[in-house]
Design brief:
The chain has 6 helices and 6 strands, in the order H-E-E-H-E-H-E-H-E-H-E-H. With 212 residues, it is of the alpha/beta class. The protein has a single domain, classed as Flavodoxin domain (Rossmann fold, 3-Layer(aba) Sandwich), CATH 3.40.50. The two termini are 14 Å apart. The chain binds flavin mononucleotide. The site of flavin mononucleotide has 13 residues, from helix 2.
Length: 212
């Protein structure tokens, strides 16, 4: 008889195992969405830091670009534009999705909402269905994207994407905290980001291979 969870494991067979201490740990391929298209984006800096830290948490982060996506319209449902089809395919072939978002006017940026709408359609072909996800964001303000993340969680919930609930990660990005190349200059921030990525790993493992 097939052991429980085998199907999930087989569907993600391209994830590989590596030895960490005395345990084998699966490396998950995670698609990364950055919700800002600004050339000076602080969220892109945060994303770069996460990309660098991710291997220590058993994750490989690969950006799935959103900047070239056409505006979603149901007119496209019958013949999906090539950029949208490629975007949906990249989400579907990832083990999980990590979203780094700014807060714009107490919500998420329009470019990110457009990407999520694109992924969600045509009806019945929601690329986020059952796909584990996690959200994080950086702001210059004190509440560090908390309101935007609540909106994002609401959308992901509707898309049936199991999200990492805790720990939450609201980053107030003061000047110099993360360099342009993604080096975290403050040790406690680097430790927090790594521990958060390890929680993302545990969330993916639990979602894809739930215990019986
Ligand atoms: C249109 C717009 C709306 C903004 N609204 C908020 C907001 O609601 N909350 C907040 O903390 N910061 C807000 N900001 C400031 C952003 O946190 C800041 O511009 C940040 O650098 C944006 O992230 P990014 O650099 O990754 O694009 C806003 C900025 C813009 C351009």
């Amino acid at each position: 008889m097939r052991p429980p969870g085998e199907m999930a494991i087989r569907m993600h067979s391209y994830a590989c195992n590596f030895r960490k201490g005395t345990h084998f740990m699966t490396t998950y391929n995670v698609g990364l969405l950055v919700g800002s298209i600004s050339s000076t984006s602080i969220n892109r800096r945060l994303a770069s830091a996460l990309v660098k830290l991710a291997p220590q948490a058993g994750l490989t982060l690969t950006e799935i670009p959103i900047v070239g996506l056409p505006f979603y319209s149901s007119d496209h449902d019958a013949a999906i534009p090539a950029e949208a089809a490629e975007f949906k395919g990249a989400i579907e072939s990832s083990d999980a999705i990590l979203i780094v978002t700014p807060e714009y006017n107490r919500s998420i940026p329009g470019v990110l909402k457009n990407a999520l709408d694109t992924a969600s359609r045509p009806w019945g072909q929601n690329s986020f269905a059952a796909k584990p996800s996690a959200v994080i964001g950086a702001s210059v303000g004190a509440i560090g994207t908390a309101v935007a993340q609540q909106h994002l969680r609401s959308i992901l919930s509707f898309l049936a994407s199991p999200e990492l609930a805790q720990p939450e990660a609201y980053i107030q990005l003061r000047e110099g905290l993360i360099t342009d190349s993604g080096e975290v200059t403050d040790e406690s921030t680097a430790e927090f980001l790594l521990s958060w990525l390890k929680a993302v790993h545990a969330h993916i493992a639990k979602t894809l291979s739930p215990a019986v």
